[in-house]
Design brief:
Layout: E1 2-8, E2 13-20, E3 25-29, H1 35-45, E4 48-53, H2 65-71, E5 76-78, E6 83-84, E7 95-96, E8 103-105, E9 111-114, E10 117-123, E11 132-136, E12 139-141, E13 146-147, E14 150-151, H3 161-166
Parallel strand pairs: 3-4, 4-5, 5-8, 6-7
Antiparallel strand pairs: 1-2, 2-3, 9-10, 10-11, 11-12, 13-14
Length: about 170
């Protein structure tokens, strides 16, 4: 498994490209902005994009999604607690649900296969109600649940300090 980190947008949100180079498939995690840069990374990888995965529904983790969906016809996964029907505000703190063709849900205990690798989903509420961490082998993609020496903020709507500590 190869993991490429791409810092995107004004907030320099970490977007990840997970690649199974043998199977030639990949997943994008948290396309927070700059869809063109992310698509270029997918093309350079030589892998076919299979999924877009969101660790939570804050705008800085999904703003680049529309541009990716113009180029790639792939499913998009998010925890249902972080999605909202009918919102079109790009700065929303909840993800605007997609059409049935693209929208998928995941939560605690779910798994996705990416080539020969298994992505495990852990529910980690606190930063938001639907925050998840994604575990692949010995790697964890924590979104805004965990930072170096700290954890994500809990003062946004849906944040909960006690839940964050439990997560």
């Amino acid at each position: 498994m190869k993991i490429v980190t791409i810092a995107v947008g004004q907030l320099m949100t970490n977007c990840y490209l997970l690649c199974d180079e043998q199977a030639k498939v990949c997943a994008v995690i948290d396309p927070g902005d700059e869809a063109g840069r992310i698509a270029d990374a997918v093309e350079r990888s030589g892998c076919q994009l299979r999924y877009v995965l969101l660790t939570h529904g804050h705008y800085d983790h999904f703003t680049g999604l529309a541009g990716l969906l113009e180029k790639y016809d792939v499913p998009v996964y998010i925890h249902p607690a972080d999605a909202e029907e009918g919102r079109n505000n790009p700065w929303s703190l909840k993800f605007p649900r997609l059409d049935e063709k693209h929208q998928r849900w995941y939560g605690e205990g779910d798994t996705l296969t990416l080539g020969s690798h298994i992505i495990h989903v852990l529910s980690t509420p606190g930063h938001s109600k639907g925050s998840v961490c994604l575990v692949v082998e010995n790697n964890i993609i924590a979104g805004d649940t965990l930072f170096y020496g700290s954890c994500g903020r809990t003062d946004f709507p849906g944040g909960d300090y006690k839940e964050m500590l439990l997560s």
